[in-house]
Amino acid sequence: MSEYPEWSAISTSTRVRTKTFPRLLEDMPTFLGVPVALSPKDLEGADVVIIGAPFAAGWGDKYSGVDKSLWLAGPKRVRQQSIRYTGYVQDFDLDIFDHLKVVDYGDAAIPPEANYVATVENILRAQAAVEVKVNQALDAGAVPIVIGQNSPPGSYAIAKPIGERAKGNVGMISLDTHWDSRPMDHATADARIAGSGNWKSKLYELHANYKWSNVVEVGERGMLEDKTYVRHFVKEGANFVPMWKIRGKFGLDGLIGLLSKAYEGTSDVYVHFDMDVLGGAGPAPGDLLGELAEPIGMTDYEVIRIAHEIGLRGLTGMSFICIPPGSAVIYRTIVYVITYLMAGLAMRKKANAGRIAPLKPGEAAPSP
Fold first, then answer.
1. Exposure pattern of 244-278 as b/e (b: 16+ CB <10 Å)?
2. How many CB atoms lie under 10 A from the CB of residue 189?
3. Would you kindly state where each structural domain of the chain is located, as residue ranges?
4. Distance (Å) of CA 139 to CA 49, 131, 162, 194, 206
5. For 55-107, how does the pLDDT look when each residue is reduced to its tens digit (9 = 90+)?
6. Which 3 state secondary structure label does DSSP give 118?
7. 7-351, which class in CATH?
8. Are 169 and 267 in contact (CB under 8 A)?
9. Span 5-31, mean pLDDT?
10. CA dist., res. 115 & res. 184, Å (int)
């Protein structure tokens, strides 16, 4: 597989060289060329706010056997690949920008040293930096979409503000290879850290309005997890859809029908896509993920389709972690996931007099 291209090659490519677009840095355009937001005032009237959260967990210069520089480049490279595209989705004959105001709020001010020196203080500073921007987007009534890489800045830092603000229970739709529900963060052994292996258990421990019966947990598989945790979560009511079930009779349509569990009796829905769920079944080899790769992964179509179906139903906020590093087509996959989700939101807004919030009880999602 060829190496990821330099910005000089991307910016002079056939699909980019004739375009003009805002930039956050010389080599970082805004997502899909949307306007730059510099302050909370710039978020006024926005439907969607794009936020970067480049954070790589742990000590040293590698995460899961992959150089951290590749993980940290994820939010920038997603934006770089996005600039190939417009807001027009030909599958639906829909220009999302005819219906949605989208802005790019840049990257959270994560301290650079937090990516290599994994002290409790540094991790909490990184988490807080993301929370600031997420809270500002929620203040504006917008849906924050955080392009991250590791926890807590790419997961708990989005789920926490949503839970703190919700007027009722919060549903969650989570795509992941791992449950991330150990009792304690293994890297710090500190109860204050909602880390890569324990952020979900910490979320349900500290935020009573997140209910297991309202989580749709998708994609876990194989022999990695402690049976005690999995059996406990399922007993508590988690709606668990392993890849084995999706590949069986239940299928993708069965999963889409089950998304309703996240909306039943909830005021808000948090969506989390851990992209190690691809596991090599997408458009690039699983070895990009190092130790995180597992067989029976989701395909790119399945992930993009689920995102679109969520957009049709509405959501409060969304986050990404573990975007497989190094492949241009994988970064384009993330662009598709976000754009097809926004296409669903645009259809929802058209059908519901401007409303993009999560489904109300008894409300049906618009047809795609």
1. eebeeeeebeebbebbebbbeebbbbbbbbbbbbb
2. 10
3. 7-351
4. 11, 12, 11, 24, 22
5. 999 999 999 889 999 999 999 999 999 999 999 999 999 999 999 999 999 99
6. coil
7. alpha beta
8. yes
9. 97
10. 20
